[in-house]
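Final report, results section. Input specification for complex C-07:
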Amino acid sequence: MIGPFETISSLARQLDARHVSSRELVEDAIARTETLNSTLNAVVSLDKPGALAAADQADQARADGAVSPLLGVPMLHKDIFCTRGVKTSCASKMLADFIPPYDATVVKKLHDAGMVSLGKCNMDEFAMGSSNETSFFGAVKNPWDVDRVPGGSSGGSAAAVAAGLAPLATGTDTGGSIRQPAALCGITGLKPTYGRVSRYGMIAFASSMDQAGPMARTAEDCALVLNAMAGHDPLDSTSADISVPDYSAGLEKSIEGLRVGIPKEFFSSHLNDGVAATVSAAVKELEAAGAVIVDVSLPSTDLGVSTYYVIAPAEASANLSRYDGVRYGYRCDSPSDLQDLYLRSRTEGFGEEVKRRILIGTFTLSAASYDQYFMKAQQVRRLIAEEYQSVLKDVDVIAGPSAPSTAFVLNDGSKSITDMYMEDVFTIGANLAGLPAISVPVGLVDGLPVGMQLIGSRFGEAQLLNIAHQFQIRTDWHSLTPDREGLTG
Amino acid sequence: MKWEKVMGLEVHLQLSTQSKIFSSSATAFGADANTQTNPLDMALPGTLPVLNHAAVSQAIVFGLGVGAEIGKVSRFDRKNYFYPDLPKGYQISQFFEPIVKEGVFEVPLEDGSIFPVRILRAHLEEDAGKSVHDAIPGHTGIDLKRAGTPLLEVVTEPDFRTAEQVVAYLKALHALVTYLGISDGNMSEGSMRCDVNLSLRLKGETKYGTRTELKNINSFRFIERAIHVEAERQQDILESGQSVVQETRLFDPDNDETRSMRSKEVANDYRYFPDPDLLPIVIDDETIERIRDALPELPAVKRGRYTTELGLSQYDANLLTQDRATAEFFEACCAASKNPKATANWMLGDLSAALNKEGLAIGGCEVTPEGLGSLISRIDDGTLSSKMAKTVFEGLWAGEPDVDRIIEDRGLKQVSDSGTLETIVDELIANNPAQVDQYRAADEGKQKKLIGFFVGQAMKASKGQANPQMLNQLLKQKLG
Amino acid sequence: MTDAATVRDVAALARLTISDQDIENATAEFNQTLALFDALSTADTTDVAPMINPLDSAQRLRTDRIETLVDRAGLMQNAPASEQDYFLVPRVLD
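Structure output:
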């Protein structure tokens, strides 16, 4: 009997051994989603006919002799990836009925690798948020406690994998949007190096930081998927022309002697005590596996949030100017003139957090503010990047918590906007510096998952996955599933 | 009060690439609305720009053509504003670091002198789409076919003082870009668009006055008129003690006035910032030298050659080098005729007149350089009289390719055979005794007139083919 | 810190409307975020070049070749208003 929490590797073996067909897997996944989604709201659209057809195709290909670790395995795409002929909303009223006429490169690559997409995951609107509460389609619930948030912006993807709807969901990470929800939902999520994975067809939030990545149950699974997702794309000028190694090949390497840096700033006042203790225990585990733990310092850690919240909204303010009701997307009723068309379509079509960020971004780019805010932030960005680089000369990876606390309560009125921004304090550095980072589950605090983050050097995904995998063969936090009625296998 | 016009120009040239600057859509002129587009040109979500190699090369070619410094590292920036023909809500342009930096462009003026214009910079950017008003009542239609076409914006220092200089610059720019093969440089088709920044100041003043920008003027004639009209308007304002408002104005040829453009932007803060979707353009010396070596001969160099080596006047040289097609026709024709001065005369005389009459460009007529060249040779070798040559030219114009055939078919060969001519003259003298006596009795001055009768008769008898010089000589000889 | 008038101006630049009921709150939130940026002035950025993109490579140049990825019908299928192959907006006065 194949449970809903099987890994991709396990499913691949079973598909290969003909113990199960892709069709069966997909039917089960769809049924489970239909049952659980009314509670979780993790999925915004299911493409049943498309998924079943693709499953049959995969089964046929397998029968014809095709062999691939991803062939016929069901998955979900964050609704930020354009999928041809399938609604892509970015969780916004602005794009609620938008049907792209083309596929994102990530979508195409995973499709070509044989994966079967079931549908699209909920997310924070235009990827702006850390709790998946800003979605036009309503908040996503954390499968571990449905009164709590799953994290964001890839909250739907994290919740879907955590609840066993699919073994893989794609996510995107601009300030922590893969790693933080992965931590809050107890799964494994990888943000690759900026430029490792194509951004073509991925609806843009902050162009110099956005990166797509896998969210799955294990590092081993993430490696399999990254193999298919990564690679140069001629349609993306910021796609690195660097060959893709086999990320699965180096997983078994020993981490004896590997230097792991623990920044003291990551264990500061922001951090919840329970999380601190759990992550520290995980670090001990790495030490037991042979790693050398080194104290390091990233003094600009706190500056990171200010830097990020100048740059990301600024880039976003320009990226979102195309949503004007003219060629696609939401258009207001009976516009009286052009300006009315723009003003009402945009004011009605965008949610509050998106509008807040467009405003602040527009402001920091304006003539009077540019030098003081935008240019300054870009300079501080370079300082932060250099700081990481310098530390990574001394250690192989940097380790710490992925998020300052466990999943917080939905509609937490006590959290101000800037409180919410501080959720990203540990994850933001990797986006500013363009470095790869992974979050792995390392335990529970009061029944809620905690994640440990590992940050590597540029294009050092193989090493990150290796360490994460070595951690996961010694522990079984990643095997935990939400102990709730209806959710357990 | 003596006022001086101070003007600077911003010219947008559409580059002659196959595909657009950031997408691989076609750029050909004349296609249907909203064809030749890709998801990027429509600014669909998730689309990204990738820079066209040819746009960079053509920009470098231009820079070398005006002797400018090429920016070894340049970037693209976003210029943010809302307008329906600008699908992304920002234009990708180069604000901070342009690909072409300072240069000097030598402009030949009508009187033959050279007017040097300082080029401040030239940068790459993408074109917007087009708005079509009232094709559908009460609406404006947006056509994005043109969106994303590569443009090179050439900015000058405010070196211009007269409308004549401005027009001369535009003509020379047209010549240069057609020579270089980087643009059609055609104002009426929109592949060359000129904006004039104009301000006034008192003669002798060094500070600049407030300027207005005149946009979207699509002919040389209108530019001259617009400059004149706007300068007058500003003069009236300044002389009444008021200030000129810095704004963008359109020229209305029907009412012969300039009008303020209703602002496209609520407030013109373009919020320029470096585009994070594109990486810096890095150009090495090798690339620049390779492009330099492949440049065609520039108009300025040709002009020098025509005047010093071929002995043409500066005025003629300027006209013959006004565009590549004309210069190439001239050079091919010289190769056939071996007579540059005569070639110049025929091209700037008969050929030019015929082209103007039909409204044709040199490439659009039937006359070939070889055809005209051999026509000139036949005059030079005595086969054709100048009068007959004009008839032959008509044949070439009509598309008959071979000069000798035309001469043969129409019997236009000049009669230079002294025997034949003598016979004609002797007959004439024999048959017209009264006129002969009259001639012999007249003084030199009157003789010059009276000989006309004999020339006319001889021409009639020879069906116009008598060699005029020989005929005259014989007549004088025999009449005495 | 900024005032409501500035926030309204910024909104207009971004083609967003803030209602009279919301303007006070929006201004307060705006200032809250601005306060977050104060920390930046503490960093010494003398002679530090701004980082525009973390990649330090040069722009790749594309071959000048025509390729159509999606046809006109596909590109216009999401148009809120179109006719005779044009996208329609209310009549623009120039």
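DSSP finds three helices and two strands in chain C. The two ends of chain C are 37 Å apart (CA to CA). This concludes the modelling results for the funded period.
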